[in-house]
Design goal:
Pfam families: Archease. Belongs to the archease family. Keywords: Calcium, Metal-binding, tRNA processing. By secondary structure, the protein is of the alpha+beta class. It has two helices and seven strands; from the N terminus they run H-E-H-E-E-E-E-E-E. A three-stranded antiparallel β-sheet has the order 1-3-2, with helices on one face. Strands 4-7 form a two-stranded antiparallel sheet. Strand 5 and strand 6 form a beta hairpin. The radius of gyration is 14 Å and the shape is globular. The protein starts with a helix and ends with a strand.
C-alpha cells in the first residue's frame, strides 16, 4: 500500500516476519475503503506499530461491504526503517473507487 511508502523512506527494509488479519465492514464502498485503510493506519500508530510490506484481500463481499485482509510485515523499528512522513488520518475528501474494468482504481487523499 502506497500509504506506507510515506511512513518509511526505504520500504525495501520491511520484512514479512509477522501476519495480521483484519476484518472490516461498512455501509457502502467508500466507507469500506476508508475502514480498511484506517485499520492498517491504527496498527501502525499503536502497539504493535505494524507496517505491512504486502496486503492481500482474502475475502471480498461487495454486496454486504465486507473485507477480510491479511498484512505481512513487521513492527516499525526506527533503527531499521528510515522514518518518513507521519500519516495522521485517512480522509473521505475526493475519495474515489473506479470499478469499471478488470483492475480497479482507488484514489484516497491522506492527511499528513
Amino acid at each position: 500500500m502506497a500509504m506506507f511508502n510515506y511512513m518509511t523512506t526505504d520500504y525495501d527494509t520491511v520484512e514479512m516476519k509477522e501476519v495480521h488479519e483484519l476484518e472490516v465492514s461498512a455501509d457502502d464502498l467508500l466507507s469500506l475503503m476508508y475502514h480498511f485503510l484506517d485499520e492498517f493506519l491504527f496498527l501502525f500508530s499503536a502497539e504493535p506499530f505494524f507496517i505491512p510490506r504486502v496486503v492481500k484481500i482474502t475475502e471480498m463481499d461487495l454486496d454486504n461491504f465486507k473485507l477480510k485482509v491479511v498484512g505481512y510485515g513487521e513492527p516499525f523499528d526506527i533503527s531499521k526503517h528510515p522514518q518518513g512522513t507521519e500519516v495522521k488520518a485517512i480522509t473521505y475528501s475526493n475519495m474515489q473507487v473506479h470499478a469499471d474494468s478488470e483492475k480497479h482504481d482507488i484514489f484516497v487523499i491522506i492527511d499528513i
